[in-house]
């Protein structure tokens, strides 16, 4: 996977500035969401939270606990801020930073968290303590997706963050509902790459944006089917 990222480096960098992108929607999304240079109010909180975890862990521990990269955390905040979804689905708790990052956008949003091993993730539980009144926790993915889709409001955007591999049936339900999806760990986890490729194959309309590590999928039927390789 790494050699492919080197091979596409120039084209990704070129597109990340908007060059060669003909879709007005994609141009706006790349310029104002993917590569927005201006700082947001949440950036300092994100930095402090990640820095605190880094100070008390080794690099190996951080890999094992799936600590999100700060650039990806900022992107996740920008995506959430752009769509401002009242309902969010998260698959895999990781360290909990992603949850806090997304919930910081709107005080009234609620998050549906699936992680069958959440009780064993002491760090994530500790990070999530301040947000537990806004989180519904599940140990069954199908149930989590059911509850999330039932609670989602027609006409309003819904967002799903996928940190760990999911089955094709769950992906199809999210695509059919028009849920915006963010997928992480594409370069480290072969199964995650498989989930992403399955999602791309199932989308007959809409756009995807990726740098080979993290991907954003917009299964919007009003958008022409396009894939964008970018630099973050």
- The ordered H/E elements are HHHHHHEHEHEHEHEHEEE
Total DSSP helices: 11
| Uncertain segments | none
Tally of DSSP β-strands: 8
> Whole-number average pLDDT?
91
| Shape field | globular
SS-based class:
alpha/beta
Q: What features would you describe in this structure?
A:
The chain is α/β, with parallel strands linked by helices. It has eleven helices and eight strands. Helix 6 (70-83) packs parallel to helix 7 and helix 10 (168-176) packs across helix 11. It is globular, with a radius of gyration of 17 Å.
Topology:
Blueprint: H1 2-7, H2 9-16, H3 24-34, H4 43-55, H5 59-64, H6 70-83, E1 87-91, H7 97-103, E2 110-114, H8 122-128, E3 135-138, H9 141-151, E4 158-162, H10 168-176, E5 180-183, H11 190-202, E6 207-210, E7 215-218, E8 226-229
Parallel strand pairs: 1-2, 1-4, 2-3, 4-5, 6-8
Antiparallel strand pairs: 5-7, 6-7
Provide a compact summary of the structure.
This protein has about 230 residues and is an alpha/beta fold.
Q: What attributes characterize this protein structure?
A:
single chain; 232 residues; alpha/beta; eight-stranded mixed β-sheet; 45% helix; globular
């Amino acid at each position: 996977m790494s050699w492919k990222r080197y091979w596409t480096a120039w084209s990704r960098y070129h597109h990340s500035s908007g060059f060669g992108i003909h879709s007005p929607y994609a141009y706006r999304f790349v310029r104002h969401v993917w590569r927005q240079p201006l700082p947001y109010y949440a950036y300092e909180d994100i930095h402090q939270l990640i820095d605190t975890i880094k100070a008390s862990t080794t690099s190996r521990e951080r890999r094992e606990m799936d600590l999100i990269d700060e650039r990806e955390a900022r992107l996740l905040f920008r995506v959430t801020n752009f769509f401002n979804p009242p309902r969010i689905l998260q698959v895999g708790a990781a360290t909990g930073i992603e949850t806090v990052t997304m919930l910081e956008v709107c005080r009234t949003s609620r998050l549906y968290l699936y992680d069958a091993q959440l009780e064993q993730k002491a760090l994530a539980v500790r990070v999530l303590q301040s947000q537990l009144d806004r989180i519904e926790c599940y140990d069954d993915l199908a149930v989590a997706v059911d509850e999330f889709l039932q609670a989602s409001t027609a006409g309003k955007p819904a967002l799903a963050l996928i940190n760990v591999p999911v089955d094709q049936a769950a992906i199809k339900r999210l695509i059919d509902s028009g849920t915006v999806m963010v997928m992480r760990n594409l370069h480290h986890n072969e199964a995650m790459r498989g989930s992403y490729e399955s999602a791309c194959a199932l989308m007959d309309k809409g756009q995807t944006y990726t740098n080979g590590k993290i991907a954003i999928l917009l299964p919007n039927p009003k958008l022409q089917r396009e894939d964008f390789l970018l630099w973050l």
